[in-house]
Structure prediction request, 151 residues.
Amino acid sequence: MKRLAMKFLGAMLLTALAAGFAIPARAQESEDALLAEKAEKARVAQAALMKSIVQSFAKQNGKYRAEVVLLDKSKVVGTISAIHESDFVMTDNKTKSSRTIAYADVAQGPEAKKSRAEVIMGDTAIVIFLIPLLPILLPLSLIMMATGGMD
Prediction:
Protein backbone atom coordinates (compact mmCIF):
# COMPACT_ATOMS: atom_id res chain seq x y z
CA MET A 1 0.00 0.00 0.00
CA LYS A 2 2.84 2.28 0.89
CA ARG A 3 4.48 1.53 -2.41
CA LEU A 4 1.28 2.31 -4.33
CA ALA A 5 0.92 5.62 -2.45
CA MET A 6 4.52 6.54 -3.31
CA LYS A 7 3.94 5.76 -7.01
CA PHE A 8 0.75 7.80 -6.94
CA LEU A 9 2.53 10.76 -5.27
CA GLY A 10 5.40 10.49 -7.74
CA ALA A 11 3.02 10.49 -10.71
CA MET A 12 1.20 13.51 -9.29
CA LEU A 13 4.50 15.28 -8.71
CA LEU A 14 5.63 14.63 -12.30
CA THR A 15 2.27 15.83 -13.63
CA ALA A 16 2.49 19.00 -11.54
CA LEU A 17 6.05 19.67 -12.69
CA ALA A 18 5.16 19.10 -16.33
CA ALA A 19 2.13 21.36 -16.05
CA GLY A 20 4.19 23.98 -14.20
CA PHE A 21 6.76 24.16 -17.01
CA ALA A 22 4.13 24.21 -19.74
CA ILE A 23 2.16 27.14 -18.31
CA PRO A 24 5.00 29.68 -18.48
CA ALA A 25 5.75 28.69 -22.07
CA ARG A 26 2.11 29.25 -23.00
CA ALA A 27 2.03 32.46 -21.00
CA GLN A 28 5.14 33.72 -22.81
CA GLU A 29 3.60 32.87 -26.18
CA SER A 30 0.38 34.68 -25.32
CA GLU A 31 2.35 37.67 -23.96
CA ASP A 32 4.38 37.85 -27.19
CA ALA A 33 1.19 37.64 -29.24
CA LEU A 34 -0.37 40.40 -27.13
CA LEU A 35 2.68 42.63 -27.58
CA ALA A 36 2.67 42.01 -31.33
CA GLU A 37 -1.03 42.86 -31.48
CA LYS A 38 -0.47 46.09 -29.53
CA ALA A 39 2.44 47.05 -31.80
CA GLU A 40 0.31 46.45 -34.89
CA LYS A 41 -2.52 48.55 -33.46
CA ALA A 42 -0.08 51.36 -32.65
CA ARG A 43 1.37 51.19 -36.17
CA VAL A 44 -2.11 51.37 -37.73
CA ALA A 45 -3.09 54.29 -35.46
CA GLN A 46 0.14 56.15 -36.30
CA ALA A 47 -0.44 55.61 -40.04
CA ALA A 48 -4.03 56.90 -39.73
CA LEU A 49 -2.80 59.97 -37.85
CA MET A 50 -0.13 60.68 -40.49
CA LYS A 51 -2.74 60.26 -43.24
CA SER A 52 -4.99 62.89 -41.66
CA ILE A 53 -2.02 65.25 -41.10
CA VAL A 54 -0.85 64.91 -44.72
CA GLN A 55 -4.38 65.39 -46.05
CA SER A 56 -5.02 68.51 -43.98
CA PHE A 57 -1.62 69.96 -44.92
CA ALA A 58 -2.26 69.37 -48.61
CA LYS A 59 -5.74 70.85 -48.32
CA GLN A 60 -4.55 74.00 -46.53
CA ASN A 61 -1.28 74.59 -48.35
CA GLY A 62 -1.96 73.26 -51.85
CA LYS A 63 1.28 73.08 -53.82
CA TYR A 64 3.41 74.53 -51.01
CA ARG A 65 6.84 72.97 -50.42
CA ALA A 66 6.89 70.55 -47.51
CA GLU A 67 9.46 68.56 -45.57
CA VAL A 68 8.60 65.08 -44.26
CA VAL A 69 10.82 63.11 -41.86
CA LEU A 70 10.73 59.33 -42.32
CA LEU A 71 11.22 56.62 -39.69
CA ASP A 72 14.77 56.02 -40.93
CA LYS A 73 15.50 59.72 -40.08
CA SER A 74 15.82 60.70 -43.75
CA LYS A 75 14.05 63.82 -45.01
CA VAL A 76 12.02 64.25 -48.16
CA VAL A 77 11.38 67.77 -49.48
CA GLY A 78 8.91 68.60 -52.23
CA THR A 79 5.25 69.22 -52.90
CA ILE A 80 2.51 66.73 -52.12
CA SER A 81 1.24 65.93 -55.59
CA ALA A 82 -1.14 63.02 -54.88
CA ILE A 83 -2.85 61.44 -51.89
CA HIS A 84 -3.94 57.79 -51.89
CA GLU A 85 -5.53 55.48 -49.33
CA SER A 86 -2.29 54.02 -47.95
CA ASP A 87 0.37 56.41 -49.28
CA PHE A 88 1.03 59.79 -50.84
CA VAL A 89 3.32 61.12 -53.57
CA MET A 90 5.87 63.90 -53.11
CA THR A 91 7.41 65.57 -56.13
CA ASP A 92 10.74 67.36 -56.02
CA ASN A 93 10.31 70.74 -57.72
CA LYS A 94 13.88 70.89 -59.04
CA THR A 95 14.31 67.39 -60.45
CA LYS A 96 10.59 66.71 -61.06
CA SER A 97 11.13 63.21 -59.65
CA SER A 98 8.27 61.66 -57.66
CA ARG A 99 8.49 59.47 -54.60
CA THR A 100 5.66 57.41 -53.14
CA ILE A 101 5.69 57.39 -49.32
CA ALA A 102 3.58 55.08 -47.17
CA TYR A 103 1.88 56.78 -44.22
CA ALA A 104 3.35 54.09 -41.94
CA ASP A 105 6.88 55.18 -42.93
CA VAL A 106 6.40 58.80 -41.80
CA ALA A 107 7.86 59.77 -38.42
CA GLN A 108 7.05 63.50 -38.57
CA GLY A 109 4.31 64.99 -40.69
CA PRO A 110 4.82 67.63 -43.34
CA GLU A 111 5.98 71.06 -42.32
CA ALA A 112 5.88 74.08 -44.56
CA LYS A 113 9.28 74.77 -46.02
CA LYS A 114 9.84 78.32 -47.24
CA SER A 115 12.01 78.91 -50.24
CA ARG A 116 15.10 81.05 -49.93
CA ALA A 117 13.39 83.84 -51.88
CA GLU A 118 10.47 83.88 -49.41
CA VAL A 119 12.84 84.13 -46.44
CA ILE A 120 14.76 86.99 -48.09
CA MET A 121 11.52 88.80 -48.93
CA GLY A 122 10.31 88.49 -45.33
CA ASP A 123 13.58 89.79 -43.91
CA THR A 124 13.61 92.64 -46.43
CA ALA A 125 10.07 93.65 -45.47
CA ILE A 126 11.08 93.86 -41.79
CA VAL A 127 14.10 96.03 -42.61
CA ILE A 128 12.02 98.29 -44.88
CA PHE A 129 9.50 98.71 -42.07
CA LEU A 130 12.13 99.53 -39.43
CA ILE A 131 14.28 101.99 -41.43
CA PRO A 132 11.73 104.87 -41.30
CA LEU A 133 11.33 104.32 -37.54
CA LEU A 134 15.07 104.67 -36.80
CA PRO A 135 15.07 108.50 -36.59
CA ILE A 136 12.36 108.22 -33.92
CA LEU A 137 13.55 105.17 -32.02
CA LEU A 138 17.25 106.02 -31.85
CA PRO A 139 16.91 109.38 -30.02
CA LEU A 140 14.26 107.90 -27.71
CA SER A 141 16.51 105.00 -26.75
CA LEU A 142 19.46 107.39 -26.14
CA ILE A 143 17.28 109.61 -23.91
CA MET A 144 16.04 106.59 -21.96
CA MET A 145 19.58 105.32 -21.45
CA ALA A 146 20.76 108.75 -20.28
CA THR A 147 17.90 109.20 -17.81
CA GLY A 148 18.10 105.69 -16.40
CA GLY A 149 15.15 104.05 -18.11
CA MET A 150 11.45 104.20 -17.39
CA ASP A 151 11.44 104.62 -13.60
